[in-house]
């Protein structure tokens, strides 16, 4: 057995230990607890030794965030695997699955969606969660006649940003294998998708952090009603 191969296997095992320990600290104590010093202490090694694998805490946290996003996407893919491949049912199942995951993985949600270390993951369209969400949205665009805003109602000040986002959407949707008339993804539809995500994300964030203006005894009903409102506004059904 050559030394290079053995060192590679040892490095991979150590890297796995580091990320597993980081994930445990995240789940148990939150994003702030994920430090190189704390991980080194848990593993019984020196903090400088970790720099062989990660150049900084930010580097480690970025890898941890990617692991969390991949796990979220895998779970959502499993949720929709048995559903008809027609778009709407899958899209709303993803919305419900996202909320369920956020409420049961609050520390991971905080790291990925609600902390300075993480970005709005939908903006990273090529990542697993962005891909699964947008693939379902693409099927909705392809298979349904939606009620969408006309281009002229899009505020002029937003058009440049929306045009850039539109180009990213098209690239990811093509990579996902979605097929739909390209003219359907105009600025009005792009604007609608941003608003859809903002309402979904805003609702889930308020619920995760207990920031509703009043307590609800049946928050599931409120969430389902919000989805039904979104669906009705664009001419879909959540049933």
From TrEMBL:
Keywords, comma-separated and alphabetical:
DNA-binding, Transcription, Transcription regulation
List the molecular function annotations (GO) for this entry: DNA-binding transcription factor activity; transcription cis-regulatory region binding
Domain HTH tetR-type residues, every copy: 12-72
Give a single Pfam family match: TetR_C_33
Asked if DNA-binding is a keyword of the record, the answer is yes
Record's keyword annotation contains Metal-binding: no
- Residue intervals annotated as DNA-binding region are 35-54
So which domain of life are we looking at? Bacteria
Name of the molecule in the record: TetR family transcriptional regulator
Lineage of source species = Bacteria, Bacillati, Actinomycetota, Actinomycetes, Pseudonocardiales
């Amino acid at each position: 057995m050559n030394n290079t191969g053995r060192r590679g296997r040892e490095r991979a095992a150590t890297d796995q230990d580091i990320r597993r320990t980081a994930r445990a600290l995240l789940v148990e104590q939150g994003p702030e607890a994920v430090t190189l010093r704390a991980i080194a202490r848990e593993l019984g090694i020196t903090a400088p030794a970790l720099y062989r694998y990660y150049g900084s805490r930010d580097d480690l946290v970025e890898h941890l965030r990617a692991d969390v996003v991949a796990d979220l996407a895998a779970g959502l893919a499993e949720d929709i695997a048995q559903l008809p491949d027609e778009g709407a049912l899958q899209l709303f199942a993803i919305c419900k699955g996202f909320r369920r995951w956020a409420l049961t993985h609050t520390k991971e949600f905080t790291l990925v969606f609600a902390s300075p270390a993480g970005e709005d993951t939908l903006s990273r369209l090529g990542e697993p969660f962005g891909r699964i969400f947008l693939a379902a949205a693409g099927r909705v665009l392809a298979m349904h006649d939606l009620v969408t805003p006309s281009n002229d109602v899009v505020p002029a000040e937003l058009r440049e940003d929306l045009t850039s986002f539109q180009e990213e959407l098209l690239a990811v949707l093509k990579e996902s294998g979605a097929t739909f008339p390209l003219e359907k993804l105009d600025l009005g539809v792009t604007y609608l998708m941003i608003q859809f995500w903002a309402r979904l994300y805003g609702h889930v964030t308020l619920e995760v952090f207990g920031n509703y203006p009043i307590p609800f005894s049946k928050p599931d009903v409120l969430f389902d009603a919000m989805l039904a409102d979104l669906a009705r506004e664009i001419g879909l059904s959540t049933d």
